[in-house]
Specification:
It comes from Microthlaspi erraticum. The chain is mostly helical and about 120 residues long. It is built from five helices and two strands. The chain has two domains: about 55 residues, Nucleotidyltransferase, domain 5, CATH 3.30.420.10; about 55 residues, no CATH class. The longest helix is centred in the C-terminal third of the chain and has 22 residues. It starts with 18 loop residues before the first helix and ends in a 12-residue tail after the last helix. The model has no long low-confidence stretch (mean pLDDT about 80).
């Protein structure tokens, strides 16, 4: 999530995807559009804390900040975004059927075109 713009990127990943797959998806979805971010706030998922991911970020010059439990600046915003994502995907699957991943691009578009009260506009 780009905190100052309140825009988010949603990637379909599997529990079995390793750090290398995640890094490749990250480059294809985010780096290609915006370049290398200066910093990333991440949860403590092993795929983000792995040796490979840290080396990858080191090579790109990005600082990784791991979230801590009960820390509102890192927990609340991400958790709220994830809850909204789950709600939107659930509605899409119930209304139109199919697999949640089929609707991910449309949900990302809808999320990023929704009014964000904290910045007084839509992210896009």
């Amino acid at each position: 999530m780009y905190a100052c713009f309140k825009s988010a990127y949603f990637l379909a990943i599997k529990k079995t995807d390793g750090a290398a797959v995640l890094a490749r998806k990250f480059v294809r979805k985010i780096v290609r559009l915006h370049g290398v971010p200066a910093s990333i706030v991440s949860g403590r998922d092993p795929r983000f804390t792995s040796e490979f991911w840290r080396a990858f970020q080191g090579e790109m010059g990005t600082k990784v900040h791991l979230s801590t439990a009960n820390h509102p600046q890192t927990d609340g915003q991400s958790e709220r975004t994830i809850q909204t994502l789950e709600d939107l995907l659930r509605m899409c699957v119930l209304d139109w059927g199919g697999h949640w991943a089929d609707h991910l691009s449309l949900v990302e578009f809808a999320y990023n075109n929704s009014f964000q009260a904290s910045i007084g506009m839509t992210p896009f």
